[in-house]
Design brief:
about 375 residues
Length: about 375
């Protein structure tokens, strides 16, 4: 909620369509809260002091309205609605033809509507109070209250769940409200005044003190602000330099460690290579020695093996030689027989041919 003094001069036509605090000064009326601040706490209580929640009320009317609403809500409505857990309240005013300073309408009557709906049962009721100080709150149904407002007005949606209304609970509420109305109002003896409800003389005095205070304090405040700014900037510069120094030191240390690790790694790799080369040379020499020994040993062994195996090879070759000799003799004998047979056949052929050619044919006739 922004105070009125902070927006004065920054909003065009401020006060043309709404009431201002200045409208209440020396008017004979006070800013009567339709929704009393005593029903709320903390920020919600502060919000009730807005001018949209206020209407012009004569001091006696204001005090009685506060007392009646507070007692009605605290002793009648809330106790019959889960201590106010499911209770909904709407308050308002119907304007009259009378105007405060020819601008702000003075209410003809004030009204309060209550709706309780816990999900299973519901009840609703309305209250109306004429602006005359001697009048008390009158209870009436929600429908009757809506008829006294603008045509077509509906305070609660679905008339506060009218289909689930509980006449028994409503009767208890009306009975407790009747007891409260029968009591004599006890207006507040000491009432908190919102800062916006101060008189004009108090405001002027506060304004002069404020200007005087600002005249002396503002330069000191600006000087203090400059000093603090310089301190902050120097601190930021020192912190920046320290950060740069620390960053440089850390970078140098990291580079140094990296170099040492690189050298150590190179030395380790070189040592490993030397070790591998030594082992490779030893293995090569051992292999050469073994090969020489093998070749030296192989020469006499081969000679001895050849000498030992010679008789066996010789004896093994005799049957093969004999077989070849027998095969040769048999082949020669067969060759002689074949040649003789061929010669005999040739002679026989020649003799037969000559005999057929030169000897006369002899025919035997019977």
């Amino acid at each position: 909620m922004m105070p009125e003094s902070e927006v004065t001069g920054s909003v065009d036509n401020l006060g043309a369509n709404q009431a201002l605090t200045a409208d209440y000064v020396d008017s004979g009326y006070e800013r009567g809260l339709l929704n009393p601040s005593s029903l709320h706490k903390d920020d919600q209580q502060i919000a009730t002091y807005t001018l949209t929640n206020a209407v012009p009320m004569a001091p006696p009317l204001q005090e009685i309205w506060y007392w009646e609403v507070e007692n009605l809500v605290g002793r009648s409505l809330a106790p019959h609605c889960g201590n106010g857990k499911d209770l909904y309240l709407i308050s308002g005013a119907v304007p009259s033809a009378l105007r405060m300073k020819g601008k702000v309408a003075v209410p003809e009557f004030l009204w309060l509507a209550a709706c309780c709906d816990d999900g299973s049962e519901a009840w609703s009721v309305g209250f109306m109070k004429q602006a005359a100080a001697g009048n008390r709150l009158e209870d009436l149904s929600l429908e009757e209250l809506e008829k006294k407002l603008l045509p077509g007005a509906q305070v609660f949606k679905n008339n506060c769940s009218q289909d689930r209304h509980s006449p028994e609970k409503l009767e208890l509420v009306l009975q407790s409200a009747k007891k409260i109305r029968a009591e004599k109002p006890v207006p507040h003896q000491s009432k908190k005044t919102h800062p916006s409800q101060q008189t004009s003389s108090e405001k002027e005095e506060c304004g002069m003190l404020k200007k005087l205070f600002c005249f002396f304090i503002t330069p000191l405040f600006k000087l203090l602000k400059c000093v603090l700014y310089l301190i902050v900037m120097v601190g930021k510069s020192i912190i920046h330099l320290l950060c740069q120094l620390i960053q440089t030191i850390v970078g140098g240390v990291c580079t140094f460690i990296k170099g040492i690790l690189s050298v150590l790694l190179t030395v380790f790799v070189d040592l490993a290579r030397v070790g591998v080369s030594i082992l490779n040379g030893i293995a090569t020499n051992i292999y050469s020695v073994l090969m020489i020994i093998y070749r030296i040993v192989c020469v006499p062994v081969n000679v001895i093996v050849d000498i030992i195996s010679f008789p066996f090879y010789t004896l093994g070759a005799i049957p093969a030689v004999l077989r070849d000799i027998v095969s040769g003799i048999g082949g020669l004998f067969l060759l002689v027989i074949d040649a003789t047979t061929a010669v005999v056949k040739c002679i026989n052929y020649v003799v037969s041919h000559l005999a057929k050619k030169f000897l006369p044919k002899v025919s035997f006739e019977l």
